[in-house]
Amino acid sequence: MKQAVQVTILGQQYTVKSEASPEEVRRVAEFVNNRIAEVVAASRAVDTLNTAILALMNVGGAYLRLQDKAGAAERDLKERLNRLLARLDDACQEEMDW
Description:
72% helix; alpha+beta
């Protein structure tokens, strides 16, 4: 069931309806505010839309890098499992050849 949670982002209050817990919604809002604060400090941007877009670009880039790492790790794990299965299959074949 969706709950309404009040959060403040860029000094503006929003009501967010989400199935996530209120704590999670507030955590996300805090994360967004922190990323925006980083952009403001680094670029001195004053336009709210530009600041939000730059923050979103930073978050999007970080997300995609994590997604790439996770994909590479998953591929590595699958390769290792396939090698292990091949070794087990070979070992079972040797036992049957007796």
